[in-house]
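Protocol step 4 of 6: structure prediction from sequence.
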Amino acid sequence: MNLEKGDVYGFLGRNGCGKTTTMNIICNIIPKDEGKISFSPPVGETDTPLKEGGENPKIGYLTETPALYGFMNGFEYLRYIASCANYSSDINKRVQEVLDVVGMTGAASRKIKGYSRGMTQRLGIAAAIFDNPQLLILDEPTSALDPEGRTEVMNIIQNLKTEGTTIILCTHIITDVERVANRIGIMKDGLIVEEGLIEDVMMKHRSQSQQIVVRFTSPDNQAAGVLRSLPNVTASHYNEKNGQLVLNADVPELLYDDIISVIHEKKIKISEFIAQRTTLEDVYMAVTGLRGGAA
């Protein structure tokens, strides 16, 4: 795995492939069998290797199911975290700062046992970022949340990204990765099988031919014939029964303007125009072998 400062790294893979084991090794929770984990400092200094049992760079970690002390309230729990981290600055000030970041100030005086799953996740993030970690690891932070809770947590991650926090985001929700990550790693059977900037990975796995679907308001054989004869169309299929035309193009962007111009010029009535592009889910499914290839 390779991360640069300020990256949000989307860590993807099937259950059991080794993602949580990897994160536990990075956090020094379990020992590694071999290999090296290091944090690269400014140019001119040497790497700082991760030491087992020694003093290491600060890492914040939110596990998939954070176990917080239900008899405490939010204020008490974060003060407890401060004592565990030997936090030497103004504790009360920092407690208020992280509560503001995660939007939990109003609920911080309530007992944790009465929190919703979303509130628990947000307080867990507050604890993970309390000591200003160099690396923040989030394991399934939106797992089992309702849409509102998921949106709240994703907004927090987006704000942390804006502030330049380096984050490993481990999740099964690929749309969350698409929303906030700039770099991804896909793991299969304990190995990173694909890694890089998202745009580079997408370009690498983009299908050579992509489809554009045009559905006419009613079957129009003449209009279909005109569109099928346009330059840059490499293949086409027209369904006379439902009025759907599928056009294949190696570079679909070159075809869009031609299609739109013809539709306006000929006053062709359409009900749908869809450019079917390769998605991150397509790439994930292809790389992990869950589907034959990106489409």
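Step 5 (inspection) to follow. The radius of gyration is 25 Å.
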